[in-house]
Structures are given as structure tokens and as C-alpha cells.
Write a structure and sequence with these properties.
The protein is of the alpha/beta class. Helix content is 43%, strand content 13%. It is built from 17 helices and 11 strands. It starts with 11 loop residues before the first strand and ends in a 9-residue tail after the last strand. Pfam families: DnaB, DnaB_C.
């Protein structure tokens, strides 16, 4: 066994990228000469990405055979890997048993395997960065004037994704007892929710935490925008940074809803404008303007919102304010993916968006609240109450969400209902607390929902 040392070249290039061939053979050789006393496969696997870190395709093939044997608790020596490659029909493609023996002869020591694996991964990460830059240049050459903004957003999203290097465990893999004392100390203080809704009972039941994704779903005209915009305002009023991605409503409509909610001016009058806005309305609006102008509330009216853009906005606000924001998306089925393809079905698109939003929430510690549409299931059901299975386009939303709030109001189906003016917030999924139904008062003429026990004159 020989140990590669200072002779490992800084890099090699054939026009397709950079790599260290000797680092790759050193890692594979260590795995091919593993002993029961030390397992370099596990150490290398903790560093290397699931696929694509190997510059040479035959190295990737050998590595996959090693992983397959290791996963079955089999030895990863040359004879076993040779048999595995023969079984899969890949032995001749990698150069036969002779090539395996040559790689084994270039092994580093077992304790060095992780270090050389880091070198392999580092070069792979550099290649991905170079490839992203090439794609960016190609897109820039092909993009028309009207598509410049979308092209920049897509390229920025790709670079942001590369910047989050997810190889290794980054301290997330540890013995249970290592973090136990620190956790016990954290229990001595009451944990503050990362975001608030402004609705007392909902705040007590939901307790939104960093990394949570909450879905607010309902049929049209049930108040999805009213409740999520109200949550954004309440959260911003508490001093927490907040951003709203409004895909369904433009700047004018959102601004009118905020003014209506905060100043208690009829939304219909603000929409109509002109003489419809009375002197009394202006007197109600004026005192609210200083507070509204000072709120840590950002609005994004970009029509083509992707998970990459959401990640970019979050990181921008973290740099600007030093706080992780609450993110509201209205609504999730209108979002696009970061994939540059139009061949995705609605199911595939919404599923990918849902998974990416969950990853973004966990990466950044943000709370993300998504409005979502329901299908027509409730309208064909006795009582008209919605269920989680009514979520439109993708069941992935249900799997990824930490909490799901379903909106229901009887007076939408029966104007003479004795519960006119009441909305039920059905907390159908709640990882942080109980599932329950919370009743609030809807005041859609002011575009807001309020606690049942609060007077109309009270404002947060």
C-alpha cells in the first residue's frame, strides 16, 4: 500500500472541469483495502454527496458498488467489489479486475480517507459552480429584453442553492447525549414563538417555530388572503420582520386591504375611490399612516415567484435587518418551480414547490405561511366542512406542512345561518400542539378576521 502525499496535483482539467484524479483513487483505494478495525467507507460517505462528486465516471461506478456492499454489511475489498461489478455488468466498463487492483495499490491510509474525500467533494463543488456560470452566460445570450429579470432570478436561485453546501453532517449527526444538557438548559426559559397571528386562541394552539411551514387552505372567498394578510400585519406590528409574496393581488388591492383593516374604512369604498372615500374615512386613515409606514413589512408583487426567489428574499432581509422573516405566500398553487421546463404537470409543480419551501424554511429558520386552494370536495359533502384531503393539486402540501388551517364559514353556503359573521379555523394538522377548531369573527367589509371576544374598536 502506498500513501499519496504532496504529489497529489492541485487540479487536472480536460476542458470539462477540474478534479484531482489521485485524490479520487486514494479514497477508493482506502475503501478497497478496508479492514474490520477501521471503516473508511462511512467516513467518506459522510463527506461526499449522494451522486456526482466523482470526476471520472468509472470512479462513480466503483463507488456505487462499494456503497451497495457496505449497505448490506459486506466487505468492500477488491474480490467483493469485483464480484458486485461483474453482477451488475459494469466490470469491463471500469477497466476490469486489473484496474481495481491498480486503484487499491494507490490507497491512502484509512484515517486519511475523509480528508481526501473532502478534496474530491471540493473539486466537484467547484465544477458545479463553473457549470452554473456557463449556463448563466448561455441564458444571458439567449434571453430577450422582456425576460432579463426572470433569467437573473433563475441564475441567482441556482447560485444560492450552490452556496448551501449540503455535504457532510455539519454538526447535525451526533450522539444523543452530546446535546442533552444544552437542551435541558433551554427548557428553563419559555420558548417564544417565531411568529404570531394576532388571533389569541390560534396563537396558543399553533405556536409557530423556526422552520415551520403552515398551510392556510379554503375554497374561494373563505378569507385566505384576509387571514394571512392579518397575520403579516400582526407579526410586523410585534416588531418581527415580515414579507408577503402577493401572487394573486396587485399593489393597489393589497394596500387598500391593509388600510381598510387598520383604519376600519369600508374596503368597497377604498376600491371605488374618489367621492366614495369620505372625509370621515380620511380622518380614520391619517392617524394610521405613520405606524404603517414604519412597519418592518416588505411586499413582493413579482408575478413569477419561485422557491429560489423566496430563498433570495429571505437571505436579503436577514442581511438587511438581522432577523429571520415571517414569509407569507398568497398563494402556493400560483408559484413556479426553479426548473427551466414547461412540461411539469400541476401535481409535479406543486409537489416540487412544496418540498423546496420546506427545505428553505429548515435552512433559514423562517416560518413560511402558504395560502392554498381546495378542490370542490367540501361542496359535495354534508355540512360543507373541508378536509385535508381536499387540498388541490398535491398531497405533498399535507406531508410537508407543520400546520394546516382549513377555513370554513356556514354563512357562505347559508346566508340565513345563525352563525353569520363567524369563521371556523379548523386546525387539521399541528405538529406543535393540539388539533382543534377555533371560531373567529370575520369582518370582510374591513378585510380582516378578529377574536370573538374582542370589540370592533380594538386594534392590534
Amino acid at each position: 500500500m502506498s500513501t499519496p502525499g504532496a504529489g497529489i496535483p492541485a487540479q487536472q482539467s480536460d476542458g470539462a472541469g477540474v478534479a484531482s484524479t489521485e485524490a479520487e483513487t486514494a479514497v477508493l483505494g482506502a475503501c478497497l483495502t478496508a479492514t474490520p478495525a477501521y471503516d473508511p467507507v462511512a467516513a467518506a460517505a459522510a463527506v461526499l454527496s449522494d451522486g456526482g462528486d466523482w470526476f471520472h465516471p468509472h470512479h462513480e461506478t466503483i463507488w456505487q458498488a462499494i456503497l451497495a456492499l457496505h449497505g448490506r454489511s459486506k466487505p468492500t475489498g477488491v474480490p467483493m467489489v469485483e464480484a458486485e461489478l461483474r453482477r451488475s455488468g459494469d466490470l469491463e466498463r471500469i477497466g476490469g479486475a486489473v484496474r481495481l487492483s491498480e486503484i487499491a495499490a494507490q490507497a491512502c491510509t484509512s484515517v486519511e480517507a475523509a480528508h481526501y474525500a473532502e478534496l474530491v467533494h471540493g473539486y466537484a463543488h467547484l465544477r458545479r459552480y463553473q457549470q452554473a456560470l456557463v449556463r448563466g452566460m448561455q441564458t444571458a445570450r439567449q434571453a430577450g429584453p422582456a425576460a432579463v429579470t426572470d433569467a437573473i432570478a433563475a441564475h441567482q436561485a441556482e447560485l444560492e442553492h450552490l452556496a448551501v453546501d449540503q455535504s457532510g453532517d455539519d454538526g447535525l449527526f451526533e450522539r444523543f447525549g452530546d446535546g442533552l444538557q444544552q437542551h435541558l438548559e433551554s427548557l428553563e426559559t419559555t420558548a417564544e414563538a417565531a411568529a404570531v397571528t394576532g388571533l389569541t386562541d390560534l396563537d396558543q394552539a399553533l405556536r409557530m417555530r423556526p422552520g415551520n411551514v403552515v398551510v392556510v387552505a379554503g375554497r374561494p372567498a373563505m378569507g385566505k388572503s384576509a387571514i394571512t394578510l392579518g397575520v403579516a400585519l400582526a407579526n410586523a406590528h410585534s416588531g418581527r420582520t415580515t414579507i408577503v409574496h402577493s401572487l394573486e393581488m396587485g399593489r393597489s388591492e393589497v394596500t387598500n386591504r391593509v388600510l381598510s383593516s387598520r383604519a376600519r374604512v369600508s374596503l368597497h369604498q377604498l376600491m371605488e375611490g374618489g367621492p366614495a372615500v369620505t372625509d370621515d374615512d380620511w380622518r380614520r386613515i391619517a392617524p394610521r399612516l405613520p405606524d404603517l409606514s414604519a412597519l418592518p413589512l416588505w411586499m413582493d408583487y413579482t408575478p413569477r415567484v419561485t422557491p429560489g426567489l423566496v430563498r433570495t428574499r429571505i437571505k436579503s432581509l436577514i442581511r438587511q435587518t438581522g432577523q429571520v422573516p415571517l414569509v407569507v405566500v398568497d398563494y402556493v398553487q400560483l408559484m413556479y418551480t426553479d426548473q427551466r421546463t414547461t412540461r411539469q404537470s400541476a401535481y409535479e409543480r406543486v409537489s416540487e414547490v412544496s418540498r423546496e419551501l420546506k427545505i428553505i424554511a429548515e435552512e433559514t429558520g423562517a416560518v413560511i405561511i402558504c395560502c392554498a386552494q381546495l378542490n370542490r370536495g367540501p361542496e359535495h359533502r354534508d355540512g360543507k366542512k373541508p378536509q385535508v384531503s381536499d387540498l388541490r393539486d398535491s398531497g405533498q402540501l399535507e406531508q410537508d406542512a407543520s400546520g394546516i388551517i382549513l377555513l370554513h364559514r356556514e354563512d357562505a353556503y347559508d346566508p340565513d345561518s345563525p352563525r353569520a359573521g363567524e369563521s371556523d379555523l379548523i386546525l387539521a394538522k399541528n405538529r406543535n400542539g393540539p388539533t382543534c377548531s377555533i371560531t373567529v369573527a370575520h369582518q370582510f367589509h374591513y378585510s380582516r378576521l378578529r377574536d370573538m371576544n374582542r370589540g370592533n374598536e380594538l386594534d392590534v
